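STRUCTURE:
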């Protein structure tokens, strides 16, 4: 992990340890009124399960997400805010979108490990297309309205290995803008298989049920496409993975930054977002 992340996360661990006694009472109160207490962060983990994601790649994603939830630094980040809790949900998407794990409160190490176990048990659904705009509409219509508590921050983490091949770019951008208008931050984890500077495909797209259609733009490179059409909101940033074998490293670092309520991390968010907009 880069030194800047280690310094930030070390501070979070100390914060979480110092707040443990005070937040124990709050967590006890939560049990008396489930779902009533607000949280620091609501995190939507949005996972690509299109045709390029075979069973092996799917397993690497699920194991990486589970390991991140079990990591002491990530757990410290979860518990570092004034409410010492967060909400977690996971969405799987291709041309179909489904909620793999509904909104679940994480307010302790045991909670985090329980969600990690559910992630590992998740089955890969059938899917062929990379439909980012479809996924964002699903989140807008069915995920945000069902968030059961107030959250100080709502963050969506989008991971995938390709550009939208269901809709042209303006549809993805419109849905991204609609979500960020609610105050959500959308961060990207592009999974680079091969040279990230090489164009993806031949510049065509095929929406479900239609023949290949010529795109009205040049073939896309994954990271710039994520930067231009996917990420958005306050402090939004990209943290790429160098292939599926690097996914667990990337998702761990990304979760720790996204979940943290520490002011130093928020400042780092802003710097990452400013750099990404250039």
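SEQUENCE:
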């Amino acid at each position: 992990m880069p030194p800047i992340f280690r310094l930030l996360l070390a501070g979070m661990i100390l914060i979480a340890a110092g707040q443990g006694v005070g937040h124990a009472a709050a967590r006890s109160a939560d049990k008396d009124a489930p779902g009533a207490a607000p949280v620091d962060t609501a995190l939507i983990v949005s996972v690509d399960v299109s045709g390029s994601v075979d069973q092996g790649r799917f397993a690497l994603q699920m194991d990486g997400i589970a390991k991140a939830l079990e990591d002491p630094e990530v757990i410290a980040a979860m518990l570092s805010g004034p409410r010492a809790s967060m909400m977690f949900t996971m969405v799987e998407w291709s041309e179909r979108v489904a909620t793999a794990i509904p909104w679940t409160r994480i307010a302790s190490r045991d909670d985090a490990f329980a969600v990690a176990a559910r992630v590992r048990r998740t089955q890969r659904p059938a899917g062929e297309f990379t439909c980012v705009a479809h996924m964002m509409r699903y989140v807008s219509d069915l995920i945000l309205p069902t968030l059961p508590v107030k959250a100080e921050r709502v963050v969506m983490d989008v991971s995938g290995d390709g550009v939208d091949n269901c809709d042209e770019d303006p549809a993805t951008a419109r849905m991204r803008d609609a979500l960020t208008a609610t105050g959500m931050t959308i961060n990207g984890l592009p999974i680079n298989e091969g040279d990230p500077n090489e164009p993806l495909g031949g510049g065509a797209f095929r929406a479900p049920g239609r023949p290949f259609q010529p795109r009205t733009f040049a073939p896309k490179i994954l990271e710039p496409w994520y930067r231009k059409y996917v990420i958005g909101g306050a402090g939004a940033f990209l943290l790429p993975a160098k292939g599926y074998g690097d996914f667990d490293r990337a998702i761990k670092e990304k979760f720790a930054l996204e979940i943290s309520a520490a002011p130093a991390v928020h400042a780092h968010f802003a710097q990452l977002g400013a750099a990404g907009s250039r």
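REMARK: The two ends are 25 Å apart (CA to CA).
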